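Hi both,

Apologies for the delay on this - the queue was longer than expected. I finally got the zinc ion-bound model through. Below you'll find the protein sequence and the ligand SMILES exactly as submitted, and right after that the structure tokens for the full complex including the ligand.
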Amino acid sequence: MGDSMKEVVEKLDPVARRLIPPNIDLGTLVPLKTNLELRDNLSLGFAYITRAPNKVTNSVVEIARALTSDDTAKNLPHLRRCVKPGDLPPHLKTQFMNEGNGRQVHFGKSNWLYILLGPKDEIPYEELVSRLATIDDIRDDIFVGVIPVPLLAPTSQMLASMWSSQFWQTIYRRNNPLGPHPSTITRFENYVSKDASVWMSLAQQIAKKSQKAGLGEPVGAVIIKRTIPGKNAGGKTVMKPGMIESDSSSDYTRTGPNGCNLDVQGGRGEMDAIPSAETEYYGDAKQLDADGSNPEAQGDDASKQDISVKESTEIVAIAADARWHQQDGTSGPTGNPMAHAALRAISMVAQKLVRAEDRPKSEPQIMEYETFQDKPLLGDEQIVFDADHPSPDGYLCHELELYMTHEPCIMCAMAILHSRMGRIVFRHRMPLTGGMCAEDRGYDSCEASGLCENGNCGGGQGLGLFYRKELNWSLLGWEWESNDAEHMLVDAHLHA
Ligand SMILES: [Zn+2]
């Protein structure tokens, strides 16, 4: 064990220290990619634009709003509503200057603006023209142009600048609309990387013990609570299961007094005041904090917060796979799915929370067959189970950290999401059955096993469940790669 690891071990909570194996193999963290990040970054669509004197832009914007659907994302909130003729990309400037009253618009004394109306697919053209004709100042020369625009928000200022010169003025909102912000990943990775090897070694150890005892497959899970200085440590957020996205108006975000926002490249005021895409996405301030919609401001916040909070970790649950426990061979080839390691570990956290609330115990039910194998079965599980929950408030696994020997199956991945877990680290990818990774994979992995009738069962679907917009919760995820640690081999078709 190296000196830095010795230091980490010395700082562990007593329960964890009691369980750790003598040798801890080191590994490195590789952040998971989201489905959106793996998709083509530049997806283009077409948008209608028009031009009008400054004084009537409000009326034009109202018409545009009335004609587009309410869908925030479709309304292109990353593109400026109004652009001065001089700020058009050069090729558009040249083109539009020579159309209709272009000369007057570009060189005349009155102030005209180009206005983005919305996606071409969303707006009926005839309707648009007839409504624009109701505005006196443009009635005689209605201009409607169609331009290609990027449909997704940019992920950096550099990209926004590039798109501004290629397509239309584009706003970078300092968030990553395709996944967790890189600075957030880095910030947490600095903490997680210090001791990830310790927790992974515990997950591997319990996995092997379970296999040896004939309880289950060599799959293990460890849940810890990590306290980070400067981060809200209270955990007072009351989670509302079934939360829906707050429906912030995107038009508000890019609209000034006359229906336009003209501050080029987005002033600070705008950036701070607007609900960012991530606010809309989570509807949860705590998670927003964790995902850093505004990482620069976050640094300031951190320094203002209670710095007396010490960086620490505490183990909350450890559980191995127990799918073969109490199985008499009639349960089929997959064993008991309720006894997957992740489900057992989450359930143990729940039991600790109930214990802390000091609820009167219900009469133990006597059942011949226990479906939820969520009582400790191994010595290590019992030791962690007996220790009290370090902070028994907040929703189930809110902001806790999960370590697994294998990428969890789709069922467990959803359970992890529902438990509001904050971060996940796993070692072995399960290309055919895993629910966390976003890559389509494993198309060639089952041929060798000879288990598939056709010699190939098609590969995994790359659901990327750790970060999906439609699921209303997301976590940070890493794979843990190690050349030293023993491989925990399982069948490619196993649902971990
Ligand atoms: Zn599972």
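Main takeaway for now: The first strand starts at residue 28 and ends at 31.

I'll put the files on the shared drive as well.

H.
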